[in-house]
Amino acid sequence: MENQNTPKTVLIAEGLRKSFGLKGNAQQVLQGIDLRVIEGEFVGIMGPSGSGKTTLLNTLATIDRPTEGQVSIKGNEISKMRDSQLSNIRREHLGFIFQEYNLLDPLTVKENILLPVSLTKISKHQAETEFNAIAEILDIKELANKYPSEISGGQKQRTSAARALIHSPSIVFADEPTGALDSKAAANLLKNLHEINQARQVTIVMVTHDPLASSYCSRVVFLKDGRIFSELYRGEKTRESFFKEILDMQAVLGGGD
Amino acid sequence: MNTRKLVIRSMRKNIKMYYLYFFAMIFSISLYFIFSTLQNDQTIVQMVKTSTNFSTAFQVAGILLIFITVVFTIYATSIFIRRRSQEIGLYQLIGLSKAWVARVLILEYTILGLGALLIGMLVGALLSRLFLILFMNLIDIEVMVGLTFSSQAVIQTITVFTCLIVVTSLQIIWTVYRSSLLQLFQANNRTDYFVKRPSIVSGILGLAGLSLIGFGYYVSTLIIDNADALMFLMLFVLASTILGTYLVFHTTISWILYIFRKKQNGHLGLYNSLSVAPLMHRMKDHANSLTIITVLSAMTITMISLSYSLYYSTENDVRLAMPFDFAVENMEEEAAIISSRLEEEQIKFNHYELDAIRFDGAWVEQDPSADRRQRTFMLFSAEQMAHAGLDVESPQDGEAIYHNTRAIIEGMEISYPKYVEFPSNDEVNRLTVSNFKLENVMNYRFYGSQLLVSGETFERMRDRIQESEDKEILTFEVFQLLDDEKSETASGIFLTNVDSDLYITDFYTAYQDSLQTNGLLIFIAGLLGFVFILSTGSILYFKQMTEAEQEKTYYLTLRQLGFRVNDIMKGIIRKQLFVYLIPLGIGLIHAAFALNVGSVLIAASMLTPIFISMAVYIVIYLMFTFVTIRYYKSIVTKAL
Fold first, then answer.
1. Mean pLDDT of B118-136
2. Cα–Cα distance between A6 and B450 in angstroms, integer?
C-alpha cells in the first residue's frame, strides 16, 4: 500500500479490543481501536480517567495482550508471539518511560541507562559514545555515578528517558512521564523529548492527562470509553495555540482529567 | 465480624507465607521431642549412669538444642512479622488499638504454635523409635527396644515450647508498640541504604578482616606445639577469626565488589546488575546473620567431622593402642589357664611369649639446655614382635624407635634423634632414639615408654643396663584370637582370669567402650548438626525470600525492558551463589583449620571421614540454594 514517498509506518493497531474480568461479567476497556503511527511522530494519547489510555499503551507496547485485534511493530505481528519473542521485540525495538521512573535503586544513573544494551551486540565503546551523546542532551552527565535516591524526580525521569533511548529503539512509549514531576521539571523533560524527537527522528507515543504535556506532541489522540473520539494535528501551529485547541477538545470530551 | 473470625480469616490468607514458618517450627519441636525421649529412655539412662561423659554430652547437647531453637525462632519470627508490617499498620490505620493488634497477632501465633507442637510431638513420637534403633546400631548394642511414650519428654517439650511462645509474644508486642505507622508501611521498601560509598577506611577495615582471619589460622597451627597455652590460644584464634569473618562480611566483600564495579565504569551488564550491585549494598545489613551462619557452619562441619572421624577410626585407633587381643605381664599361671579355657570353648588363637626389659632412664634432647626427663622404659625386640605377627620396622643396630599412640598429644613428635640415658655397666650409657611411631608395640596400661630395638641390640642392652631394683626382665604372654565371632566369650574368659585390681583390659572390651562413647558422640553431633544446618539454611532462605519480594518491582521493570525470565534468572543465580557459597566457603576453610588442630586427637588418618562429612553438609546446604532459586523464579515469572 505504501509507496516510497510516504513515511514509513512504525506501528499499526487494528480492531484492538481488550476486556478484563470473567466472561459474563467482563468489562470492555478497549472497544475497537485502529491506530497508525509513522516514523518520527510524537503522538499523545489523552482521555478522561477510565477511557483506556494506559491499557491501550500497554497493549501497543507488548506488555499486555489484546483480547481481539492485531498490533504490528515494524512489520512484526506481535499478537500471536510467544513471551520470549515479545521480550526480544521489547528489547530491540521499544523504549519505556514510566510515571514512577522505575529505575533500579542499586544501580547508578549510568548503570541504569546502559542496562538495555547489556545483552546486545553493541560494543562497549559504542555504548559509551551513545551514553555521552544522550546524557549531554538530557543534561545528566554530571550525575552518572549517583544513585537514584540521591537525585531529584526530574533528574530521575531524564535518566529513565535516557535509558529508553540508549539502544535507539523504533518507538518510545511513555506512560504519564510528567505525572510525578513539578511543573518546571515537567516542562524541562518535555522540551528534551521534543528536541530528541526532532533531532533524532525518534518516534514517541505518550499517554498523559496533562494538556500542557500533549501540546509538545505532533498529534494528539483522544480516547473516550475505549474508543478513539477524535484526533488533533499540530501542523504548523505554535505550541500555545495547539495547547488551546487541546483544552477546547477536552472541554468537549467532558471532565478535565 | 468478631476477633475470632478475623484471626481465622487472616491465618487462612497468610497460609502461604506461614507454611514455611509452620514447617520450621514442627521440625524443631519434633527434633527436640526425639532428643528428650531418648534422654529419658531406660536403656540410655542406664548407659548414662555408667559414664559421666555420656551425661555431660547429653546435657550440653540439650542446652545447645534449646539455644539454637530459640535463636532460630526469634530470627524467623522477626522476618515474618516484618513481612506483615503493612497489615499491622492497616489495622491501626482503621482505628484498632495497639493492644488489640498485639493480642490478635499473639493469638494467631499461639494457635499456629499449638498446631506445630501437636504435630511435632506426634512426628517425634513416631520417629524417636527409628532414632533409638539407629543409635543402638551405632554403638553396636543389640537390645530389642520397646520405646514407651515418655511423659517426661512431653513435659520437657511443652516447657521449651512455652518459652518459645513467650519469646515470640514479646517480639510481637515490641514490634507493635515500638514502630510508628510510617515505619510499618515502609518496612518492606527501604531504599535509603544505597547511598553510602566505601571510603579508604573501608579498604583498611577490609584488609584488616582478611588479616585477622589469616592471623587466626596461623596461630591455630601453633596450638599443637604449645599445648600448655591451649585455652588461651584457642580463645584467641576464635576471637580473631570470628571478628575477621564479621569484618569480611561487613566491609571486605562489598569493598571488593565496589572496586570491581568501579572498573566496569557503568557498563555493568544485566547479570552483574542483578548480583554484584545489590550484594554490594546489602552485605552490610547481612553481616550479622552471615557471620553467624559462617561460624555455625564451621562449627557444625568441625563437630561432625571430628566425631565421625572418631567413630570411623574407632577400631583402628584401639588397635593401634592395643596390638594384641590379650596381654599379661609375668603371669604364667593365668596365661596357662586362659589358654586351656579358650581351648575348651574351641576358640582358636595364637599365643606368643615376648621378652622385655623395664628400666629407669631419662630422655635427653640434642639441645643440651633442654630438661632431662626421668621416665620408666620398656625395651622390646623387633624380631620377637615380627614373630608375633606385628608389622614393625626393625631399627638399625644400636638405635631405637619410640612407639606411642599419644606421642603428638604428649608433644613427643619433634626433634629426633633423641637419646635415652640409662645406668650402664660400661662407658656406653646412651641409646639413640632415631624416630617415633604413632602405634604401640604392647597393649597400653603396661607401665613404661615403649622402645623397639633390633634383636642384637636387645641382647646387648640386657647385659649393659646396670642391675638394680629398677631393672626388671619381663615376659609378656600375648594372645591373638583367630575367630572374631567369639570375641565376646573370649573376652569374658580373659577378664575373669586376671586380677581385676590390676586394671588390665583386652582389645575387645576397650573397643566396645570406645565404640559406645564415639557412637554417642556422633549421634549427638549428627542430631545437633542437622538442626544447625536446617536453621542456618532456613534463615538464609527466609532472608532471600524477603529480598525477592522487595526486588519484585525491579524484575517487573527488567521484564518490561525486554529481558527474558531466563536472562534475569542467570543474574539471580549468580547472586544466590554468592550469598550461599561465600559463607559455605569461609565456613569450610575455618573448619579445615579447626580440624587440623583436632587431628591430634586421632592417630588414624581423618581424610575420608572429613570428606564424607563435608560432602554431606554441602549437599544439604545446596538444597537450600536450589529452593531459593526456585522461589526467585516464581517471583520473576509472575512479575509481569
1. 86
2. 106
Q: How far apart are CA B233 and CA A115, in angstroms?
A: 51
Residue with cell 525491579: B554
DSSP A151: S
pLDDT of residue A256: 44
Alpha carbon distance A45, A59 (integer Å): 13
B353, β-bridge pairs: B477
Side-chain-side CA neighbours of B353 within 13 Å: the count stands at 10
Q: Please report residues of B whose CB lies closer than 8 A to that of A150.
A: 195
pLDDT per residue as tens digits for the range B9-44: 777 777 766 777 788 788 888 888 888 888 887 777
Give B96's contacts (C-beta < 8 A, 6+ positions apart).
Answer: none
Q: What is the pLDDT of residue B77?
A: 85
**What pLDDT digit, counting tens, does each position of B368-423 carry?**
777 788 889 999 999 888 888 888 888 888 889 998 887 777 777 777 888 888 88
Give the torsion sign (CA, B600, B601, B603, B605): negative
The rounded distance, in Å, linking the Cα atoms of B218 and B210 is 12
Least confident of A227-236, B11-20, B317-326, B521-530: B11-20
Tracing cell 483522544 back to the chain, one arrives at A222
DSSP helix/strand/coil, B12: helix
Q: What is the DSSP-derived secondary structure letter of residue B207?
A: H
- Please tell me which of the candidates B195, B557, B566 has its beta carbon nearest to residue A147: B195
What is the C-alpha to C-alpha distance for residues B215 and B593, in angstroms, rounded to an integer? 12
- Chain B closest-CA separation from residue A34 CA (Å): 24
- Look at residue B519 in the predicted model and tell me its pLDDT: 86
Q: Is B463 helix (H, G, I), strand (E, B) or coil?
A: helix
Question: What letter does residue A180 receive in the DSSP assignment?
Answer: T
C-alpha of B597 from chain center: 13
The contacts of residue B308 (CB under 8 Å, 6+ apart) are B522, B525, B609, B610, B612, B613
Q: Give the integer Cα–Cα distance in Å for A166 and A116.
A: 7
Give the model's confidence band at B97: pLDDT under 50 very low, under 70 low, under 90 confident, else very high.
Answer: confident
The span from the CA of A53 to the CA of A226, in Å, is 8
The Cβ of residue B143 has, within 10 Å, a number of other Cβ atoms equal to 11
Q: Which residues from A are below 8 Å from B273, CB to CB? A: 104, 106-107, 111, 115, 118
Question: What integer pLDDT is reported at residue B193 of this predicted model?
Answer: 54
A58 in B contact zone (CB under 8 Å): no
10 Å CB burial of residue B247 (0-12, 13-18, 19+) is: buried
Phi, psi values for residue A77, rounded to 5°: -75, 115
What burial class does residue B494 get, using C-beta atoms within 10 Å of its C-beta: 0-12 exposed, 13-18 middle, 19+ buried?
buried
Detail the DSSP E strand segments found in B79-220. none
C-alpha cell at A173: 512509549
Rounded mean pLDDT, B488-514: 84
Rounded to 5 degrees, what are φ and ψ at B344?
-55, -40
Query: Under a CB-based contact definition with an 8 Å cutoff, are residues B245 and B582 in contact?
Result: no
Residue A147's nearest CA partner among A107, A118, A88 is: A107
- Does A225 have pLDDT greater than 80? yes
Confidence band (pLDDT; 50, 70, 90) for B96?
A: confident
| A121: contact with B, CB 8 A cutoff | no
Q: B248-299, pLDDT tens digit by residue? A: 999 999 899 989 988 988 888 899 999 998 888 888 888 888 998 999 899 9
Residue position matching grid coordinates 485502529? A34
Antiparallel, parallel or unpaired: β A94-97 and A171-175: parallel
Answer yes or no: do A115 and B192 touch at CB < 8 A. Answer: no
Give the residue carrying C-alpha cell 614382635.
B385
Pairing of strands B399-403, B430-437: parallel
Does the model's pTM come out above 0.90?
no
**CA A32 to chain CA mean position, Å:** 20
